Fold this sequence. Notes:
Layout lengths: L2 H16 L6 E5 L5 H13 L4 E5 L6 H10 L7 E7 L4 H7 L5 E6 L9 H8 L8 E2 L5 H13 L1
Helix pairs in contact: 1-3, 2-6, 3-4
Amino acid sequence: MTSESTEEMVEAEAALAAAGSGPQVGIIMGSESDMEVMEKAGAVLDEKGVTWEIKVMSAHRDPETVAAYCAGARARGIKVIIAGAGLSAALPGVAAAHTDLPVIGVPLSSSMTAAGGLDSILSVVQMPPGVPVASVGLDNAKNAGHLAARILFS
């Protein structure tokens, strides 16, 4: 994706939010293979009447898209970002670096690691000072949905 098309995407989403149809929660993940797990957060949000959107964007393969999405999230009406990632699990931290909104990290397991998901857990919970990421358990996108709803309704 080019920076021009990224800017166009942010502008179009901002227009939707201004019209009152923007989502309250953004769910992002590093790979299409994470979709089945991350959709569970959306199911919880649906039960609670919370609007949401879900997108695939990689902190490693397309960092400009992640930065643009997170930097423009508040202007589009998003109030919480849920970010799921496995292996090095950089996405939640990168998201938190580009927004002041609450970010909930979902560490994801992967068949591509010898650590069975421990690597992604440690990546999500070991953030530097000033870059906070809340974390839920391994593959527990449902709890991320519950936490996002509690943040919104508190």
